[in-house]
Every structure is written in structure tokens, then in C-alpha cells.
Amino acid sequence: MGTIRSTEIYQFKVTLIGVAPPVWRRIHVSGDFSLAQLHRALQVAMGWENYHLYVFCMGRKKYGPPDVGDDDDLGLIDAKRTRIRAGLSGVGTTCTYVYDYGDNWHHELLLEAVLMPAPETTYPRCIAGERRCPPEDVGGIGGYAHYLEAMADPNHHDHEEMMMWRGAFDAEEFSVEKVNQELAKKFRSKSKPSVPRSVTATPKPVVNRNRMVKTLITPVIPRMQRTPVKSGETVPFELNQSERDLIISHTFADKSLMDRLRIAPQPGQRPVFHFTLDELDELVGDVAAEANHAKNRVLQEQLDQLCDRIEGVLRRYTDAEA
């Protein structure tokens, strides 16, 4: 679950609807990603902070987090259980990604191409884009227009208040390099994909790989020895009280996962919890994101260590469907 297995990379152009000049990104993600993972990649690529709920609208179907409390009547399909390739019919397909039901930010996702993964390239990644996304909780399209107006005019009656709220803001600021640095941190459990046979630089060893595995593809052996796990099946992971407190207090993990971690083990029992690979995959991203933003060095080191432990568990298993 920790590595990209698909030989297909999906290229999306993501455009924030209703904002001019346009805020857009062009990203590459694995077709094996779930829509929940795509959501996390979009948050980083666009510059959102993952404070709010989201939904993908594909035709008449809607996908999002299933445990949305009072919004259960939305009838959302679990985004964690739907892969990108299952929801899109082909190149040229568009869908809508809505973030924050209050500010109601709509993004158009256009599938521009389906590609082979490039050698020695880590995914997801951003390859182009323009302009900074609006600040969180700015008030939607209308609120953002007012915010820009106030920020541009030192004599505007709201200028000082806006400066105190967020500080200086450059709407034109954007860096592909910074986005990819954040994606690498957020998805650091996603290692570089194996090079497909059609693009490998050493064709002769590949021809003989079935007869010469030990001598020619030694680096791949650990992957082949992973324990296959079926969809929905759980794996054990021991978490002490300090590690559980880190997750509960410092991450935005799913409520159902949080509730499980709050249940203390019986006296004399080891604190072993059970997670699906999807849950661990998302949890490691949440922990890594908090480690990246932690201003306290001790907290950052604790989160880094926890992230390494979760990644270690993920490396022991693989998706049985792969």
C-alpha cells in the first residue's frame, strides 16, 4: 500500500472555478490512488490546509468521507474505497471537486492524459500552475474579491484588519518546487515506482528476470516478500499511550479511528490495534503533514518517529489485489 503499483499516471488540470485571473495546477497522480488520496494531493497542490469537508462529483455520484455527522443525508460514496481510475471514463473526462461546504470552492478536474510513469520519478507531483489559492475561511468567491480589494488599498477601511488576520498576501505567488517538496513530505511513504518493462534502460536483465531474480533484481525482493492483505482486512499495529495521544491531539485522522484509539486496552493486555492498509496509508499522511508544520522541535521529532513506525508496518504488507 505504501508504493505506487499502477503503470498508469493520470494527468489532471485543476482549475479553481469563479476566480479571475485563474488559479490552476497541472498534477500527476497514480491511477491506483483512492479519491481520498487524490483529495490530499489536491489540498497540497492548490495550497489549502485541509480544515474542511470535501466531495467529488462524478456524474450523478458523489464521493467523500462517509462519516460527516449531520451531513449523512448527502449519500456520499466512501472516497477511500474508490480508486481514481474507477470513477473516470477516459481522457477528456471532467469532474468537480468541492472543498469547504461554507466557502464552497469548486474545482474543475480535467483528465488531460494517461501516461506511463517516468523512471526515477516520485508521485504525486505538480508540473505546472499559476497563482496562489485564496486563504482558508475568506468567505468564498465574494469574500475573496473583497479581501483582495482591501489588501491592495492601504486606505481601505478593512485593510488593517485583513493584514492582522493573515499578514501580507501575494495572489500571484506560486512555486512548483515548493509544492513538490510538500507533496514529497505529505506522501513520503509513496516510494518511486518500479520502472515498467517498456521503458527500462536494461532490457536484457528484464528478459531473464524470471530465471535470474536473485542476481538481477535484488532490490525488489523485499516487495515480493510482503504479506498480501485483502481489501477491508486489518493488520495489527501496537501503539503506546504516548503515540495514541499524538494522533488524537495533533492530527485530523478520521473520527472512527480516533474513537478506537481512545479505548484503553484491558489491564495486562498489549495495546495492539487493527487497521486496514487504507487507514494506515491515510494516517501516515496525516502524521507526516503535522510533523512538517510542527513549530515545536520535540513534537516534530515525536511525530517523525511515529511516521517512521507506521511506514515500517506498511512495508510489511501489500494489497492482495495487486
Characterization of this structure:
- The protein is of the alpha+beta class.
- It has two domains: 9-132 and 170-186, Structural Genomics Hypothetical 15.5 Kd Protein In mrcA-pckA Intergenic Region, Chain A, CATH 3.10.290.30; 226-319, no CATH class.
- The chain is 35% helix and 20% strand.
- It has an eight-stranded mixed β-sheet with strand order 5-4-3-6-7-1-2-8. A two-stranded parallel ribbon has the order 9-12.
- A hairpin with a 5-residue loop joins strand 6 and strand 7.
- The longest helix is centred in the C-terminal third of the chain and has 18 residues, at 297-314.
- It starts with 8 loop residues before the first strand and ends with a strand.
- The model is unreliable at 1-6 and 189-224 (pLDDT under 50).
